[in-house]
Design brief:
- This protein is α/β, with parallel strands linked by helices.
- It is built from 14 helices and 16 strands.
- Strands 3-2-1-4-5-6-11-16-15 form a nine-stranded mixed beta sheet, sandwiched between helices. It has a three-stranded parallel beta sheet with strand order 8-14-13, sandwiched between helices.
- A hairpin with a 6-residue loop joins strand 15 and strand 16.
- Helix 4 crosses helix 10, helix 7 packs parallel to helix 8 and helix 13 runs antiparallel to helix 14.
- The structure holds nicotinamide-adenine-dinucleotide.
Length: about 400
């Protein structure tokens, strides 16, 4: 059986046959070609879902050089296989992938050797709310998402690209979890540097079936004949992977420095994870069999016959730390231009903290992280000090306690 995941996403998850961003891409074709065709591009975190989708959107405009950096060596291999196995993409003759952490000496060397780049886009991050379990996982997240973002900007300042883009998340608007707070701090850093080079960012919601997401986990569960588990009360906006790359490309090339882009999605397009699970099972010819406990679901899955038509699922109300029951792309203090583009709103008045202030803030954060006696509550208190609107939701339960 051939399972067309993109068709499933378009028909059942986003409900859009055509990309939501197609019109803006068409309307701005000349500018996109002028800025990308024959140019040198560096993509960091390019083996990931959004980075890979950005690359696919970009290749449409024929850059001369594409350098991709990602710590995930297997992911880079899959990216290359994917690009070279499709008719849709023309891989440039200078195409280089490096399994490298961008916070490393090797990266610094390769940036100097291959740069300067016309376009640099960064998608490398810890992105899971589930990673905020304890002091160690939080420290790793703050280091990668926040401190390293500043390191990258300091490096790029030596060889400024014409366009620098760094992806954010809707969770950075009025953050309620440490992942959102780490991204809000990242936004503060890039805003502080946005007077020195052109930097743009984008906030958006769930990318359907992105790496490590709950829907991507459904596919893994099906391969392993394990039950599907999903919250039934969390409604989310979804964009397809292809659309996620297009959002980032439009923001990267068309944005003015310091602007934040977000998709103008309609609430009627929101859906729940349990609905996606049900639709996926129906799509594949199964009927979901509702279970009332994880034990029952595991037992039913273990007893499944090859010709089964029903598939065990467990749907529940969300009760883990740091979950927002709604999504927001901008706060009441942020000024939004809804008219420049058809499909994207643009926040135009982001606060720009002075680089010296950011330097001090980061030194404080580094000092706090260097203190071995830290705990989660202390770190949350430090973050709250910097981000007055950070309302951390702590239920004492982490997603790692669930199936
Ligand atoms: N997936 C979504 O639904 C979604 C929605 C909105 C925003 N975002 C944001 O977009 C970003 C990327 O999301 P994604 O779904 O593509 O994630 P992903 O995990 O698929 O991709 C991230 C990539 O970055 C790489 N990486 C991480 N740290 C690195 C480092 N220090 N050096 C080099 N490579 C590194 C990882 O190996 C991975 O391949 C995240 O910051 C996330 O918060 C994601």
């Amino acid at each position: 059986m051939i399972f067309d995941i993109n068709r499933f996403i378009n028909e059942k998850v986003t409900g859009r046959e055509k990309s939501f961003f197609e019109k803006d891409l068409e309307n701005n074709k000349q500018e996109l070609e002028r800025e990308i065709t024959n140019k040198k591009v560096l993509v960091i975190g390019g083996a990931g879902t959004i980075g890979g989708s950005f690359i696919k959107a970009l290749l449409h405009y024929n850059p001369a050089t594409l350098v991709v950096v990602d710590i995930n060596e297997n992911g880079l291999t899959e990216l290359t296989r994917d690009l070279r196995s499709s008719d849709d993409f023309k891989v440039p003759s200078t195409y280089l992938t490096y399994p490298v952490n961008f916070k490393s000496n090797v990266f610094r060397k390769l940036l100097r050797a291959h740069g300067p780049f016309d376009i640099v886009a960064n998608f490398a991050a810890h992105k899971h709310v589930r990673s905020e379990k304890d002091i160690f996982s939080i420290e790793a997240m703050l280091e990668n998402n926040t401190l390293n973002a500043k390191y990258l900007l300091d490096l790029l300042n030596e060889q400024k690209p014409k366009h620098f883009f760094c992806v954010s998340t809707d969770k950075a608007a009025n953050p309620v979890n440490i992942m959102g707070a780490s991204k809000k701090l990242m936004e503060d850093v890039i805003m502080a540097y946005s007077t020195e080079m052109k930097i743009t960012t984008a906030r958006f919601a769930n990318v359907a079936f992105s790496n490590g997401s709950l829907p991507a986990g459904f596919i893994e569960r099906l391969f392993k004949r394990q039950p599907l588990s999903a919250p039934s009360d969390v409604k989310r906006y979804f964009v397809s992977p292809k659309e996620s790359g297009q959002i980032c490309l439009l923001a990267c090339i068309l944005g003015k420095s310091g602007e934040v882009f977000f998709p103008k999605l309609d609430e009627s397009n929101m859906t729940t994870f349990s609905q996606i699970a049900t639709d996926l099972l129906h799509w594949l010819g199964f009927e979901p069999e509702l279970c009332s406990s994880e034990d029952e679901a595991r037992e039913k899955a273990a007893a499944m016959k090859d010709n089964t038509k029903s598939y065990p699922v467990i749907y529940f109300a969300s009760d883990t730390s740091g979950e927002k029951s709604f999504e927001e792309f901008y706060t009441e203090h942020e000024q939004v231009d809804f008219n420049r583009l058809e499909s994207l709103g643009i926040i135009t008045n982001m606060e720009r903290k002075r680089p010296e202030l950011i330097g001090r803030l980061f030194a404080d954060l580094q000092r706090t992280l260097d203190n071995d006696a830290n705990d989660k509550a202390t770190l949350v208190a430090v973050l709250k000090d910097y981000l007055p609107n950070f309302q951390h939701i702590e239920t004492g339960k982490s997603l790692d306690q669930k199936m």
